[in-house]
Structures are given as C-alpha cells and as structure tokens.
Amino acid sequence: MDMVVLSTALTALLANIALGGGVFEHGLIDRAWPRKPEIIQPGKGGISRARFWIPAHSAFEIVLLVTLYLGWANDGVRKALLLALVAHVTLRLWSAFDMIPKAIAFEKAETVDEAAARDWTRRSLMRFPLALLTSFAALTAFGAACGLSLG
C-alpha cells in the first residue's frame, strides 16, 4: 500500500478519535461535572482527561507532520493537511492559553462555582468547529491520497 495513503488514513483516524473524544466529553462528562466536580477531579477518584487528551493530541500531531512531509508532493493532500494543521494549532493554542489552565483549576479546586463551570463547558464547546474542520481536512487529505494512488 502507498505510504501516503496509509499515513493519511492514520491521520484521519487519529483526527476522528480526537473528534469522538470531544463529542463524548461534551455529550456526557460536561453535562454532569458542573454539578458534581469530583467527576473530573482525579484526586477525588474522578477521571483524568489528560490521560486521553495528551496521547490523543500528541499522536495526531506527530502523524500529521509525518504525513505532511510524505504527502507534500500531492497538491490535494498538502492543501488539506495544511488546513488541518492550521485548525488544529488554533484549537491547541486556544486550549493551552485559556481552556486547559481553567480545567486544571477546576480539577484541583476544593469547591467549584457551578455557574463558572457551566460557562467553561459552553466556551469549550465553541472549540468543536475547529475539531470538526481538522477532521474534515484530514479525511479530505485521505481522499486526495486515494484518488492519486488509484488513478
């Protein structure tokens, strides 16, 4: 199998794993934790979101960069992956400087203001379009790689 096809398939898979993780987190975890913060407080027996997000994002970022290198000669693959990269970097910068520090504070707090927690979950959901764009762009790159290798 063509390495670009394989690499874009893995890139798309990892982008969609992250998208699915976001859907799960917003659909299930974020609905409950503002009322019961211990759900997201590992020190109190809750989940550790970092255990999913750090490996998920790290794997995606490494594979995305490798795939961009491998697929650079394919115009369709390159453009789609550059779009995925821009969307993902935007999402990660927003997360790093705004969302993650507040999430860590919620995870460590003895008491959590429910209104502030709900505000965080609403603002966190605003990152979803960037995750969706990243996923769509990665799938587009895979399609471009398949079209080239099948022709």
Description:
- There is one protein chain.
- By secondary structure, the protein is mostly helical.
- It is built from five helices and no strands.
- It has helices at residues 3-32, 49-71, 75-108, 114-125, 128-150.
- The two termini are 14 Å apart.
| Tally of individual helices | 5
Which geometry do the CA atoms define?
elongated
Low-pLDDT windows of residues: none
Class inferred from helices and paired strands = mainly alpha
Strand content: under 5%
Estimate the mean pLDDT confidence: 95
Count every beta strand, where a strand is a DSSP E run of 2 or more residues.
0
Order of helices and strands: HHHHH
Major pleated sheet: none
Amino-to-carboxy terminus distance: 14 Å
What's the gyration radius in Å?
Answer: 17 Å
Query: Helical residue percent?
Result: over 70%
Please name the defining characteristics of this protein.
151 residues, mainly alpha
Short description:
By secondary structure, this protein is mainly alpha-helical.
Task: Please give the structural blueprint.
Elements: H1 3-32, H2 49-71, H3 75-108, H4 114-125, H5 128-150
Helix pairs in contact: 1-2, 1-5, 2-3, 3-4, 3-5
